[in-house]
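can u do me a favor
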């Protein structure tokens, strides 16, 4: 039975490459055409494959409906939380997870620093959108017209001398963030707080969340915090792998 299931499931990646006829399916599976036909008929009955008028088979609409339903029911916070905890255990600093919703970037999870100096961020609270590293990652992934329209209607508070001053500077930074795949906030919101962040991506490659590590200067310098960037990116990749259903990435030690 397990071999039958394995063969049936092996048909789906083949058809994801494009329509295939019975002979092609049988050749790929290494089975007789009668066996391939039996598997295809079962998948067809469940709506997972569809036989076209030219007798070739393609993926069925039911498969896409199931995938969409599964994606809608995924809880990124639940998936990410164990990874965030392990990252916190490794580095000791505050770890955040944020998402972009209705023109705001919100923290949806936080693991506190082990050090006495704590950050005042709270789950459910919007971040300083023009300076926060997580916000830069989330907004950098928006289509260019949407990104520009958002940048032009934002206010640009001068939290510190390092704060983003205007829309032009913000768009330039977002372009850099999009190209490099990570972001920082080095004293842009609070002069004494630095942050490095990496994106969490879905199966389609789009950024669905952003995670970060933050620490005050009295605990670690900005240069020392930046050395954690590879670890932060590996953690984000591990979350992305689990969220998108790819083979799980080995969690960073």
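np, heres the sequence
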């Amino acid at each position: 039975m397990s071999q039958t299931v394995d063969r049936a499931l092996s048909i789906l990646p083949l058809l994801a490459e494009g329509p295939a006829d019975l002979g092609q399916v049988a050749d790929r599976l290494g089975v007789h055409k009668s066996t391939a036909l039996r598997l295809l008929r079962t998948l067809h009955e469940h709506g997972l494959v569809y036989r076209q008028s030219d007798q070739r088979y393609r993926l069925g609409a039911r498969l896409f409906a199931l995938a969409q339903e599964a994606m809608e029911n995924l809880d990124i916070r639940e998936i990410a939380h164990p990874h965030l905890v392990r990252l916190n255990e490794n580095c000791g600093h505050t770890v955040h997870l944020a998402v972009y919703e209705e023109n705001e970037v919100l923290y949806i999870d936080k693991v506190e620093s082990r050090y006495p100096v704590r950050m005042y961020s709270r789950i459910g609270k919007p971040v300083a959108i023009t300076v926060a590293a997580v916000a830069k990652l989330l907004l950098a992934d928006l289509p260019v017209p949407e990104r520009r329209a958002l940048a032009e209607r934002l206010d640009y508070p001068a939290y510190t001398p390092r704060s983003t001053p205007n829309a032009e500077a913000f768009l330039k930074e977002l372009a850099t963030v999009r190209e490099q795949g990570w972001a920082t906030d080095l004293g842009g919101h609070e002069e004494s707080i630095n942050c490095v962040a990496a994106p969490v991506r879905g199966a389609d490659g789009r950024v669905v969340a952003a995670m970060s590590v933050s620490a005050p200067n009295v605990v670690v310098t900005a240069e020392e915090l930046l050395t954690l960037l590879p670890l932060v990116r590996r953690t984000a990749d591990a979350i992305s792998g689990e969220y998108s259903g790819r083979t799980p990435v080995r969690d960073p030690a």
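The first strand starts at residue 49 and ends at 51. hope that helps!!
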